[in-house]
Every structure is written in C-alpha cells, then in structure tokens.
Amino acid sequence: MPELRIQLVKEKDGSVLLRCHRADGTTTWQRNDGSRGSFFVVHDLTHYAVETTLGHRRGFWGLVADGWNVTDFGAPWPRGPIPADMDPSELIVGFFDGERAGGVQWTAADFNDKAEKYFAEEWLQPPVPIPATKCVSCPPVCSRISAAVPS
Fold first, then answer.
1. What is the pLDDT confidence band of residue 8, given thresholds at 50, 70 and 90?
2. C-alpha gyration radius of the chain
3. 0.85 cut: is pTM over it?
4. Distance between CA 115 and CA 113 in Å, rounded?
5. First vs last Cα of the chain: how many Å apart?
6. What is the pLDDT averaged over residues 22-35?
7. Distance between CA 76 and CA 140 in Å, rounded?
8. 3-state secondary structure 27-49
9. Which residues pair with 16 in a beta bridge?
C-alpha cells in the first residue's frame, strides 16, 4: 500500500473523525456520529488488518492513498463505481462485519455463497471457491483484527 497515515479521533460528543494524510501532502476525512462512528472504527480497522495481512495494495486504504477521498466510497459515488481491479478487501471485510453482527463464525460455504453473489452484482469474474475444509476466518487476519480493534 502506498504511504498513508491514518488517524481515528474520538470526539467529546462521541463521534469519530477519520483523517487520512497521503504522501503527497493531501488529506481526506470523514466524521461519523453515533452508531455509524462505532461501526466504521471497527470496519476501517478490519480493512487495515485484511489489506496489510493479505498484501492488498488496491483495497480501500490503497485507493485512499492513491487519491480517492473517503466520501468517494458511497452514494452518490462521485468517482464512479469501485474499480473492477480492486482487491476483494470489501468482500472479505463485509464477511467479517457479518460474522461480528451475527455473533457467529461462518463456514467456507457461507463465504463462497457471499462471494458468488458479490461478484455477480459487480459483474466481475469470481475467484476460485474456498474449499469447505479450509477455515474462512484465517488466523493471521483474525489476530490482526483482534489487535487493532478495542474490545
């Protein structure tokens, strides 16, 4: 991932400010209030854990480092859709978000089903399915998430 300094700041009112400083001196930021703030702290740290552990250079943080603004990742999608060559970080992070929200650990079959739907919706070529005998929540990523996300 290109150089990027990521700051998460909890404000006195409970909101969370995400500020990103790029190597070229530009910044992007977003403020999330209430439950959005709590959700996005964990979601964004999960992105960091997934992307750094799996070496994704074209994940969320890589695109931010390359000039995307944090606000480009949602309606009205000012930069257009997520690039087709983006690493599958959002899929993987979304899967971990779902596990956290449901309080369960899903199977490889669950992940493959989610991946198939995701790639069909995005009109992308799906990856090779994960064999049912493999653990979806791979230990290195889970360890990084646990270390990054406060309990």
1. very high
2. 16
3. no
4. 5
5. 27
6. 93
7. 35
8. EEEEEECHHHHHHHHHHHHHHHH
9. 10, 32
At a CB cut-off of 8 Å and minimum separation 6, what does 49 contact? 141, 144, 145, 147, 148
- pLDDT, position 139: 55
Q: 47-65, pLDDT tens digit by residue? A: 998 888 888 899 999 999 9
b/e 47-72 (16+ beta carbons within 10 angstroms → b)? bbbbbebbebebbbbbbbbeebbbeb
Report which residue type is found at 38: S
Tally of CB atoms within 10 A around 28? 18
Q: Dihedrals φ, ψ of 77, to 5°?
A: 50, 65
Q: Which of 61, 56, 74, 66 is nearest to 26 (CA)?
A: 66
Paired tokens of 124? 């992308």
H helix runs in the chain, sequence order = 34-54, 60-65, 89-102, 108-121, 139-148
